[in-house]
Design a protein that fits this description.
The protein is an alpha+beta fold. Helices cover 33% and strands 28% of the residues. It has four helices and six strands, in the order H-H-E-E-H-E-E-E-H-E. It has a six-stranded antiparallel β-sheet. The longest helix has 16 residues. The protein is globular.
Length: 106
Amino acid sequence: LTGTKSSKKYRKMINSYRLNQSFDKYLKQNDFTEVNDLKKHDIIGMKGVDKSFANKLGIDFSIHFAVYLQGGSVLHQPYMRPSKIEKLTNDYKSLIHKIYRHKTQL
């Protein structure tokens, strides 16, 4: 990551997210509440999808999201690829920053 154009782009993007926490603010402003358990249709805020990437950039906030479907599956939108249903793996679980639930689902 160090010294490449793409690493500078990512660092700039991550620093912008770090400063404004726009994703978390948006969810809170639109009637989502932080919860500690997973229930169908919850939004999972993750520190990315790659632990080493998140650690290298010091990401300790939500920059990537998935929707919990149930039974350990999530709807996930990988970068520059079509959405897909995947298992909520231990790797993904280790990157969870916050879990949000809409007020109508509480």
